[in-house]
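An example makes the point: we let one protein speak, the chain in one-letter code, the fold tokenised, and here it is:
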Amino acid sequence: MRVLIPKAASEQARWQSELKGRDIDICFVDPWQVDVLPETAAMRSSWLNLDINRTVFCVSPTAAQVLVDALDQYWPMPPAGVRWLCNGPRTASVLSQIGLKAEYPESGHTSEDVYALIKPVIKAADRCLIIKGEGGREWLANQLQQQNVHVSTIKCYRRSVDVNVLNNMIKLAQNVDALWLSSECLGDHLIDNNEQFWRNWSGQWWLSSRRLVDWAKQQKLHNIEQVNGATPQALNSLLISASKNQGSSVTGKL
């Protein structure tokens, strides 16, 4: 079984290690170009006033690293009384390196999962800071605002997709059985780059959330399988389940 996994280069070793020993041949590509944006006066004001927030949420490892750098510059000791929240364990590990105890959903790692984690304790008039890149979903901010939570954002990086990598993914996809996808943004870029190829591709789409499954159906894609989370552990669980159902190898539609 050969699977194409688009993943940032900094993440690939961890994924390879987590999936070691599985009956799977992984083909990694890194489609992302990430540029940290220069600090603005508004950003600096937000960093200096971190302590007014009940919750600070980092949506990615890049966002977490920008927060760590800001704490190093502006806060000799991290502000007390702040609930540090992340989308998943990789992002939380960036904060844990400086001693911050960050919470994240046990599974799923989407905005919906993060919201389910904090919904029981968040209150009207609480303040929440979301650290993210340009673009991306606004779902969590909208949900919190509906509860009269004061939400502010720091957009600290820009993420784009390398067209050369998109073209290479078409070549690679012709020799793999499945494509792992955990980003709707990347999925949109794939379709925009070569709609005919991807809508007629015979391989399996392994999608990390219900939201992505809905997206794939809207795009009229075929051979869709939902994986419960955007982590190597979730992929490993899928492989174990498929192996039990189909024998020692993963073949056919999951």
